[in-house]
Amino acid sequence: MTTENDDTFDPPYVKGADDAADTQNQLNDEMAAISKQYEKAGTEETQPRLDYAPYRSSILRHPTKDPRHADPETIELYAPAFGQRDVHALESDLTIQDGGEPIGERIRISGRILDGDGRPVRNQLVEIWQANAAGRYIHKRDQHPAPIDPNFTGVGRCLTGDDGSYSFITIKPGPYPWKNHLNAWRPAHVHFSLFGTDFTQRMITQMYFPGDPLFALDPIYQSIVDPKARERLVADYDHDISEHEWLLGYRWDIVLSGSNRTWTEDDSNV
Questions:
Q1: Which is catalytic among the residues 137, 166, 221, 250?
Q2: Over the stretch 233-261, which tens digit does the pLDDT of each residue have?
Q3: 129: helix, strand or coil
Q4: What are the two backbone dihedrals, phi and then psi, of residue 227, each rounded to the nearest 5 degrees?
Q5: So where are the chain's domains?
Q6: pTM exceeding 0.85
Q7: Most buried of 139, 162, 211, 219 (most Cβ within 10 A)?
Q8: Burial 134-173 (b: 16+ CB within 10 A, else e)
């Protein structure tokens, strides 16, 4: 047992130089100050700030030099290729991929891919990846103490229909910790990747679930300083998509351009 005056007390959560030392309250104060500055400026920012101080590693994550220019036609000679026959319909159901049923809340995510004028984007390759219901990714670098689900890979893909529609059946992901600051947790989310007519046109974004209490605490979500732009990343619960005694449904449309454009990660995966 220790007391407040015990000089030998060493907080168990401070383990070394690799662990974050800032508290959530410090981050909250910084994010609140940035929000006030944005409101006073009277401008509109629909994309995340590259240098967003509360997101501690954002400086390391975004490019600081002019990108290397290349001939897109030359790249296509070596990049992966896909067609209608390369994407199976069952790849959009993440609950049937590994022989057994995964654990967690079964959900459907449906929506449309639209351009800035509301026109559907057809035959678009849509890929998703996510954590499992416990907030654990399948890849080896995720080593936080949450169980791996042997029946859930967390990855899926599909092609959009003529009306720009897509649909996935999956498990609702859980929140997970990260090392941005002490007791930092990411809201539950699903990563989306979209390709245009070739592999040089890839766009990446994230979809969130309504009513998450971690929104106000998350520097990545808050790096989009405009509240309306942030809200476009949050799916709507849609009871018409839900199925009796089977799953709950969420609807989320992705707009690729214009004033209602969905935020995308310009150059890095988060």
A1: 137
A2: 999 999 999 999 999 999 999 988 766 67
A3: strand
A4: -60, -40
A5: 17-61+79-263
A6: no
A7: 219
A8: bbbbbeeeeeeebeebebbbbbbbbbbeeebebbbbbbbb
Q: Lowest-pLDDT range, 80-94, 143-157, 208-222?
A: 80-94
Size (the chain), residues: 270
The residue with tokens 């974050």 is: 20
Question: In the annotation, is 261 catalytic?
Answer: no
CA atoms 47, 48, 51, 57: torsion sign: negative
CATH number assigned to the domain with residue range 17-61+79-263, chosen from the 4 options 1.10.10.10, 3.30.720.210, 3.40.50.2300, 2.60.130.10: 2.60.130.10
52 is catalytic: no
191 catalytic per annotation: yes
Considering only CA atoms, give the Rg of the chain.
Answer: 20
- Tell me how far CA of residue 175 lies from CA of 54, 55, 117, 122, 138, in angstroms: 19, 17, 34, 32, 14
Catalytic pick from 136, 181, 186, 232? Answer: 186
As a whole number of angstroms, the distance between CA 231 and CA 234 comes to 5
Q: Which one of 108, 112, 189, 230 is the catalytic residue? A: 189
Q: Distances in Å between the alpha carbon of 260 and those of 26, 48, 116, 242, 266?
A: 32, 14, 7, 26, 17
The SS3 assignment for 112 reads: strand
Q: Are 93 and 243 in contact (CB under 8 A)?
A: no
Secondary structure of residue 193 in the 3-state scheme: strand
Catalytic residue among 108, 136, 191, 230: 191
What pLDDT digit, counting tens, does each position of 15-62 carry? 444 556 789 999 999 999 999 999 898 888 877 887 788 888 776 666
